[in-house]
Design goal:
The protein is mainly alpha-helical. It has one domain. It is built from 3 helices and no strands. The chain is elongated and about 60 Å long. The model has no long low-confidence stretch (mean pLDDT 94). Pfam families: DUF6290.
Length: 82
């Protein structure tokens, strides 16, 4: 259990949002906190990947071509419909 003291304006905005969305204040607050935590985690992952970036890139056209070849090979493996 956690208790948070909000400024009066933030508390009113939170209550307005909850009412407008048909949710409770707790539901809106929990969702906002979880989204913020997920954003923070995503930023940490992005920073780590940026730090470890080796500079190698694959052109989009090559990725599409490889996917198309893979899909064609998978279609050939499936038996034809009777």
């Amino acid at each position: 259990m956690i208790t948070v003291k909000l400024p009066q304006k933030a508390e009113k905005l939170l209550a307005d949002m909850a009412r407008a969305s048909g949710r409770t204040i707790d539901q809106v607050a929990v969702e906002a906190i979880l989204e913020t935590i997920e954003d923070w985690q995503d930023a940490r992952i992005a920073e780590e990947r940026f730090r470890d970036d080796d500079g190698a890139r694959i052109p989009l056209e090559e990725v599409i071509r490889k996917l198309e070849l893979r899909e064609a090979a998978e279609r050939r493996k499936k038996p034809a419909a009777e």
